[in-house]
Amino acid sequence: MKSITTSSESPVTFLGARPAREKTFGFATGRPCLWLAATVGDRGAQAFERLQSPADLSRWCGEAKLVEAAPYVTEAELEAARVLREAIYRAALARREGSAPMPADRETINFWAAQPALIPQLSEDGRTCSRSAPQPIQAVLALLARDAVELFASPEAEKLKICARPACASLFLDTSHPQQRRWCSMNTCGNKAKKLAYRGQRAKD
Questions:
Q1: Its domain of life (predicted)?
Q2: How far apart are CA 178 and CA 190, in angstroms?
Q3: How many Å apart are CA 67 and CA 58, to the nearest integer?
Q4: Helix, strand, coil percentages for the chain (3-state, nearest 5)
Q5: How distant is the alpha carbon of residue 167 from its chain centre?
Q6: 3-state secondary structure 171-182
Q7: Which class for 182: exposed (0-12), middle (13-18), buried (19 or more C-beta within 10 A)?
Q8: What is the Rg, in whole angstroms, of the alpha carbon atoms belonging to the chain?
């Protein structure tokens, strides 16, 4: 593989100044490919980048439990992850709106979906499974791209929603029975919205 990027365009990065706590990762959006998309915060306002360094991507892979241990990440792999992330986000928006993805985004997703993924290995006692690959980050990107392909090509994509907090704009899957979920995460955006509503009510009293 000569290059791990598929587009001549520079990746979209979001480097707004935020305290370290904003680099906390969330995994409540329903699918691994959407977890990756959520590594940009506040897309609807002053967007900021949670994957600011290779170490951030390494930590994200570990916290997402996509690999057994946080892997080494290069700058090129970080750039590739950002490119794939934005392709997935835009393709998800298009799928939600009933439109075809942009050709460049489809090419990026398909490129990574075609790469070797993580290899499952049975333990000596035959009770557990580990996953590894000669190039772990590239294998993780393959896994995420395949997850996106499977999602967009399935009826489950009809459950894609955008977080009701305008500043957030994260995409998530509403798998609730009444299909009335509004927030990407109740612990973050849901609580923020409740606090704002409470303050507004207090101001009126």
A1: Bacteria
A2: 17
A3: 10
A4: 45, 10, 45
A5: 17
A6: EEECCCCCCCCC
A7: middle
A8: 18
Query: Which tokens hold the place of 139?
Result: 């294998």
Distance, in Å, from the CA atom of 172 to the CA atom of 162, rounded to the nearest integer, reads 6
Q: Which amino acid is at 159?
A: K
* Backbone dihedral angles phi then psi of residue 52, each to the nearest 5 degrees: -85, -15
Domain boundaries defined on the chain: 20-204
Q: 161 CB contacts (<8 Å, ≥6 apart)? A: 96, 171, 172, 173, 174, 181, 182
Measured CA to CA in angstroms, residue 190 lies from 46, 89, 196 at distances of: 19, 21, 10
Q: How many CB atoms lie within 10 A of CB 50?
A: 19
**Topology classification of domain 20-204:** Jann2411-like fold (1.10.3300)
Pairwise CA distance, residues 80 & 66, whole Å: 17
- pTM to 2 decimal places: 0.85
Single-letter amino acid, residue 169: A
pLDDT tens digits, residue range 79-105? 999 999 999 999 999 999 999 999 999
Do 55 and 81 touch, CB atoms closer than 8 A? no
Q: What angle do CA 49, 52, 58 make, to 5 degrees?
A: 115
